[in-house]
Amino acid sequence: MIKVEAVVVGAGVIGLAVARALALRNCQVLVLEKEGVIGSGTSSRNSEIIHAGLYYTPGSLKARLCVSGRHKLYQYCEQRRLAYRRCGKLVVATDANEDAYLVRLQQQANANGVEELELIGASRMKSLETQLRGTSALLCPHSGIIDSHSLMLSYQADAEAEGCMVAMRTPVMAGAFVGRTIQLCTGGPEPAELEADIAINSAGLDAWGLSSQMSGLDRRTIPPRYLAKGNYFTLQGARVPFHHLIYPVPEPGGLGIHLTLDLAGQARFGPDVEWVNEINYNVDPGRGRNFYTLIRRYWPELGDGSLMPAYSGIRPRTTGPHEKSADFMIQGPSETGHPGYIALYGIESPGLTASLAIGDWVAKLALG
Ligand SMILES: Cc1cc2nc3c(=O)[nH]c(=O)nc-3n(C[C@H](O)[C@H](O)[C@H](O)COP(=O)(O)OP(=O)(O)OC[C@H]3O[C@@H](n4cnc5c(N)ncnc54)[C@H](O)[C@@H]3O)c2cc1C
């Protein structure tokens, strides 16, 4: 039986941020990842946007950890010289109802502590983005873009520099609460048994499955799981004429089909919302029709045949299609009923932005 102080299950951006935060607090950490590379789940299937914190209910974990995580993330990128761009974003209204929505969105964002927001009219919008059509827009200068893989490699390097080990191809198959410790069985090429004081379940879409394999855990603590797939299409054969990230007002279940730029200047649109029952990352080209309709509301000049299916990601949710999207669910010892077991469910957007703040939050829960 291998003994270790803390085990982190999952080497996505959250598991790596948690491992880093624990290792920086002198905790002996082992990260177990079932795949052969880090970040092969949701962490490499997202929009790579550094969110400002507009959309979340004031006081929620999403609001607090997004705003504090964003500040930490920009500072971290500067310190580590990681590539990012604070390109700003425009949330565009296209009729009077949406104008009114933007006023409410600005009030909510102010309550969340988002700085320097500006409601602008159609003529100012045109001066910023000539091809953008709308009646008004909320200009948010603190949204940005980042390369999520470089970020994860940097978290891993920080953690390893403090003695953390990251074991790939090591799926956690089962576990049990034994007194104050947690025993885990791993599979893969070299199956092993481990004993830890602390186990962090940051297995993303599989967090539910892992908790249900933990003997001694009260099953009533495990929330329901819903999967909201988001499909992306890239722009082919044309240069995108925009400099900001462009968002419509949100749709039920998502932020609306928005324009994302990556650091290489490539444009992609998405994600939409497709409720699914199983994990399958294929993109149905037929969904493109709806993309043209929605994008042309704010960019009428989008050319026919210019969108190509790209990739998809799946939002892990604890609430379903007709419910309001729930807050992050981070269960500490008082919720899981074990002094060392911490489980993270529903870590959808803005998880990437909030990753450093989530790492600190979980490390404090784990170490007291
Ligand atoms: C469509 C979409 C767009 C998004 N856009 C943004 C955005 O622009 N900005 C933003 O801030 N956030 C965004 N997010 C959210 C962000 O991507 C996630 O919050 C974040 O990536 C979650 O990371 P994670 O580490 O929890 O999960 P994952 O990246 O899925 O990592 C979980 C890891 O656990 C491993 N694992 C699972 N089970 C086991 C096991 N039993 N044993 C060992 N390993 C296991 C998996 O292989 C995986 O590597 C988006 C999400 C989606 C779905």
Description:
With 368 residues, the chain is an alpha/beta fold. It is built from nine helices and 21 strands. Strands 1, 2, 9, 10, 11, 12, 13, 20 and 21 form a nine-stranded mixed sheet that branches. α1 runs parallel beside α5. It is elongated. The two termini are 26 Å apart. The model has no long low-confidence stretch (mean pLDDT 96). Residues 9-15, 32-35, 39-43, 46-49, 51, 171-172, 202-206, 210, 230, 271, 313-315, 347-353 line the site of flavin-adenine dinucleotide (FAD).
Compact overview of the structure:
This protein has 368 residues and is an alpha/beta fold.
Provide keyphrases for this structure.
5-stranded antiparallel β-sheet; 9-stranded mixed β-sheet; 29% helix; 9 helices; 368 residues; alpha/beta; single chain; binds flavin-adenine dinucleotide
State the low-pLDDT regions, or none. Answer: none
Order of helices and strands: EHEEHEEHEHEEHEEEEHEEEEEEHEEHEH
User: What's the shape?
Assistant: elongated
The bound ligands are: flavin-adenine dinucleotide
Number of helices: 9
Counted beta strands? 21
Structural class: alpha/beta
The share of residues in helices is 25-40%
- Which percent range describes the beta-strand content? 25-35%
Radius of gyration: 21 Å
Measure the end-to-end span.
Answer: 26 Å
> What profile does the largest beta sheet have?
9 strands, mixed
Average pLDDT figure: 96
